[in-house]
Amino acid sequence: MYMTISAFFRGLGPVLGFILSSACLAFYEDPGCPPEYDSEDPRWIGAWWIGFIVLAGFQLVFTAPLLLFPKQIRKSPDATTTFHESGIFAAMFRLFRNPIYMFHLFSQIFKWFGILGYFNYLPKYVQEQFRVSASSAALYGGSLPIALSLLAALFGGVTIRYWKPDTRLLTLLMFLLEIATVVLILALGLFKCEAPDYTVGANEAMSRCVDPNDKTFSLAIYQGATALFGSSKKLDSFYADNEDGDGNIVENPKYTPKNGSIKLSGDHIEKLAKFNSS
């Protein structure tokens, strides 16, 4: 029971950490100057730095009392310590010769190698696949899975403490739970979601090397410029390709870029920045 409670409270740290990150990412990086778009926009950058300030404050509060301890702790005259290295090695060899323990140990190692790789990228996957904000992804993909795992571990510890099954029955239950875990993980492959809306295809920037002196930008840079300046309408109303093949830039408020390339020089980008701020 002690091991169960200890593991439960150790796992509360990551849960509270993901909840804190979810709360911080709900605010903009500069809370005093929030943008026009919301937190579900890909351009949104959450206030990640707030979490470090909060954690630093907690560390200061809980570590400051350590200064009150004396430099040396008084030793009890009756305390005796016996240590035999041969006993430790003998106990280790007994564990290595236990097939049930060794197979269970290797099963846990291989299982967690796979699950941890999946879990580390779960919040980002939830954000990209389901089009949610980084704050919601940290909450759903980080804190909830860990919290459910902690509840399962707590339930198992309480059950073993009060039910007290014998060794064979406990081993059988562990085997059945491992089989259920494998089946549920394989069942995740049956779920299908729509592919994310990514633009696929070659463009001018991908097919050639851009001369830094030329500073010509393709449609990909056009999309980046729209993200930088906040609105594609402002960009379209200022400069657009007239599709004559010469790469000339003309003003055309009604133009909507298609698969062709639109070229903006460095001077145009600088003028566009002034136009956008006006």
From TrEMBL:
It holds the Pfam family OATP. The chain crosses the membrane at residues 7-28, 48-69, 100-119, 139-160, 172-191. Keywords: Disulfide bond, Membrane, Transmembrane, Transmembrane helix. GO terms for cellular component: basolateral plasma membrane. It comes from the Eukaryota. GO terms for biological process: sodium-independent organic anion transport. InterPro entries: MFS_trans_sf, OATP. One of its GO terms (molecular function) is sodium-independent organic anion transmembrane transporter activity. PANTHER family: ORGANIC ANION TRANSPORTER, SOLUTE CARRIER ORGANIC ANION TRANSPORTER FAMILY MEMBER. This is Solute carrier organic anion transporter family member 1C1-like.
